Structure formats: structure tokens, C-alpha cells
Amino acid sequence: MRIFHKKHEKNRRFFPLNENIFATTLRVIDSQNNQIGILTKEEALKKAYNEGVDLVLIAPNANPPVAKLIDFKKFLYQLEKKEKEAKKGVKKGVVKDIQLSLFIGPADLERLINKGKEFLEDGHQLRISLTLKGREIVKKQMAFDLINRFISQLGEINLSKPPRLEGRVIRTVLARKK
Questions:
Q1: 8 Å CB contact between 170 and 127
Q2: Tens digit of pLDDT for each residue in 70-117?
Q3: How far apart are CA 173 and CA 151, in angstroms?
Q4: Based on C-alpha coordinates, what's the Rg of the chain?
Q5: 64: buried, middle or exposed (CB in 10 Å: 19+, 13-18, 0-12)?
Q6: Phi and psi dihedrals of 47, rounded to 5?
Q7: Which end of the chain is more exposed for a tag (fewer CB within 10 A), N or C?
Q8: Do you find a cis peptide bond into 60, omega within 30 degrees of 0?
């Protein structure tokens, strides 16, 4: 037996159009985003038919619902274009990790500070962790001082999450100041 799979259309929203609109009165907008006014469904359909476009319901939950006189394929294209444009400026929520130890050497600390600066310049968030091993747990203040010194070396940053002791690990999350 053969199985046919439908192609999945991702993020496709349903927009009722023309006769599939069930509201009796509509706030109608033309293709240049000028408000025509509140019309009955029949009047709006006649106007759409005369202009050779579709009547697309774009805000069904408004009172009265909002419909637009526009070519439906053009409307979908513009919507897709807006979504792509919105995605362009957004960085993925990538959080980069840097792990420190309580007795880290100055050269290693400098290397990790430079790496942290690179991550922040690339627009990533930065999670700094310092694990206290064995008897190091009694030197909590020394660990907090090390993390605060590390943060101060990075320059202008926003603390998304201030340094906090979680069990045996001190964690903080930073982002670049905009």
C-alpha cells in the first residue's frame, strides 16, 4: 500500500477570505492602508469584486473584525517578507560558556578574558561558571572576588544574572551593553 505524505507548510496562518468570512460587519482597509470605514460583508465583497482584489480577514478578534482589500497572494508574499526581515536582526539565543577555577594562572585568566570579549562582540551571551572543588568551598569570598574581577575586565556589559552560588558552582550570565 502506498502512503502519500502532505507537504508541511511551516508557520502558515489561516486567513479567511471573501465568502469564508463569517462576520456581518467589517472595518475595511484598502491596499494603501487607508481606512474605508465600517461596512457590511456584502458591501465589502462588492467593493473587492469591483476593484478585482480579495477581501482578507486580517484581525478576526478586533471589534469589529478588520478586513483588507488586497490580492491574497501579494498579501502572503508581503507577510513572508516581513517575517524574513524580522528574523534577520535577531541573533540566535546562543549562550557561550567560560569555566574558571579558583587558582587559575594570570596568563590563563587573560586568555579567557580575551575570549569572553570576543563572544560579547559577536553578540552572544556569556555564562561564567566557577566550580569549587573539595575544600575550596570554604573560600567562597575569594571565588566571588575572582568572578567580579573577571567581569570588570570585560568592559561595559549588562548582568543578565548576577553571580550566585548554586551548590558548589558560582554562575553568572552577561550580555554586551547596547
A1: no
A2: 888 888 888 888 888 777 755 556 888 999 998 889 999 999 999 998
A3: 10
A4: 28
A5: middle
A6: -65, -40
A7: N
A8: no
Residue among 78, 169, 93 at smallest CA distance from 131: 169
95-176 fold? Translation Initiation Factor IF3 (3.30.110)
Long-range contacts formed by 7-12: CB under 8 A, 24+ apart? 11/83
For the chain, the domains span: 18-86, 95-176
Closest CA to 101 of 2, 26, 168, 28: 168
